Amino acid sequence: MHDFDYEAPTTLSDAVAFMARHSGGVKPMAGGTDLIDQMRVGVLTPGTLLDVKKIRELNAVQCDATGLALGAAVPCYRIYGDRSIVQKYSALADSCQIIGGIQIQSRASVGGNLCNSGPAADSTPSLIALEAVCVIAGPQGRREVPVEAFCTGPGKNVLKPGELLVELRFPPRPTDSGSHYRRFIPRNEMDIAVVGVAASVQLDRDRTHFVSARIALGAVAPTPLLAADAGAVLAGQPVGDEAISRAAEAARAVVSPITDMRGTREFRIHLTGVLTRRVLNAAVARARGEQVDCRPGH
Amino acid sequence: MSKKRVVTSTINDNVVEFLCEPRQTLLEVLRTTLNLTGTKEGCANGNCGACTVLMDGRPVVSCLVLAVEAEGRNVRTIEGVAQGSHLDEVQKAFLEGAALQCGICTPGFIMQTEALLAENPDPTEDDVRFFLAGNLCRCTGYDKIVRAVLTAAAARRTSAS
């Protein structure tokens, strides 16, 4: 690996000040599971690595009546190990359970997954479906960006030099709501999504009609996508195959996938429809209080 | 060149102080500086699990951890599993069940199994296969490994009760 310096500040203000002093050449590191490999192969050669795991705000999880505040560096295992996240923000827990293997989940963070900005990132569709907002700190202070507006292309995002993703903030979950994330891979575990779909639904009190829905898609465009129309067609509709099929059709209409070693464009479009239907059905089941076994391969 | 750092960690219950460069991985320092060569390098990019060690009880691939990150942490490697010449249940089950051939992946499998059994003393076959999905073996076809893990779990439950 190339030669670099290592800093591990313990406060956010120190981290932001450090990044401001060293314009460019500083790369924040959370779990390092993408970054260390990217440095090993020489894709990235930062002059300094800024380990952000010792900063309280980036390592905290707070899930209460006001919503969820998830520090950007919190590793996956703490997310799916948190009972209230599993219950209320199920899609996020689903994602964290299938990112890499258990060893990777000990270190990899959702904030890092987002900042890496891969089109097939497994946690980003769940963030979008659950309406998460990025809280970003920088030399000009703080700003907030909805997750669906964060990625701008493969490996690219809205972070400016000197800016740091601090946390992801989620609104509280309404009653009679449920969410799910699922991806298609040719194996049971340890693979990159051919297509990934997250959905969050809110049902009415009788749990017979959709009040609203948000559907987000991964690996079918240069960035993870919010399929706004696919969610909108469900609003007010009775829960059932007809409405869900219409949403799946709307999801298929917004994708622009490429053909690569993981699958053809046609296959990815097909998968978008299939997964959207399955994920919506699972999100509805959860909104109705039913158990959904989402372990990959099952 | 960036300065070498002094890092203090507890490795296999011993407090250890070592010098390293920020660019050195924990795997490299374990093997070359500390001469703990039981931890193996497979892919060096986090896919194969051969270099799995426990950090504060959590399994990590040491090829994707910087040695400087081990400051103040508790690290357990394959060398810390046996008590002297007395193998633990997992090692015994791998040996007796012929759950290895070339052996390069074995230390990683054993550390990952230690992590599994610490969290779930009575795993199903399915639990084992899921938890060990991040460890690759090119020789065995996995069946003997999975059986050895289940045998070790049963042996440990018996000795605990």
List keywords for this structure.
heterodimer, A: 298 residues, Uridine Diphospho-n-acetylenolpyruvylglucosamine Reductase, domain 3, Enolase-like, domain 1, 32% helix, B: alpha+beta, Ubiquitin-like (UB roll), DNA polymerase, domain 1, 2 domains, five-stranded mixed sheet, 5 helices, 34% helix, globular
Structural features, described:
The complex is a heterodimer of chains A (298) and B (161). Chain A is of the alpha+beta class. Chain A folds into two domains: 5-51 and 58-170, Uridine Diphospho-n-acetylenolpyruvylglucosamine Reductase, domain 3 (2-Layer Sandwich), CATH 3.30.465; 177-287, CO dehydrogenase flavoprotein, C-terminal domain (Enolase-like, domain 1). Chain A contains eleven helices and 14 strands. A five-stranded antiparallel beta sheet of chain A has the order 4-5-10-6-7. A four-stranded antiparallel beta sheet of chain A has the order 11-12-13-14. In chain A, helix 10 (241-254) packs across helix 11 (265-287). By secondary structure, chain B is α+β, with helices and mostly antiparallel strands. Chain B has two domains: 5-80, Ubiquitin-like (UB roll); 89-160, DNA polymerase, domain 1, CATH 1.10.150. Chain B has five helices and five strands; from the N terminus they run ββαβββαααα. Chain B has helices at residues 26-33, 89-96, 106-119, 125-131, 143-160; strands at 5-11, 14-20, 52-55, 58-61, 74-76. Chain B has a five-stranded mixed beta sheet with strand order 2-1-5-3-4, with helices on both faces. In chain B, helix 2 crosses helix 5. Chain B is globular, with a radius of gyration of 16 Å. Chain B starts with a strand and ends with a helix. Classes of the chains: A alpha+beta (298), B alpha+beta (161). Chain A binds chain B through residues 1-6, 8, 31-33, 36-37, 39-41, 49, 51, 77, 100-104, 106-107, 188-190, 295-296, and chain B through 1-2, 5, 21-25, 44-47, 49, 52, 55, 58-61, 63-66, 68-69, 112, 115, 130-131, 133-135.
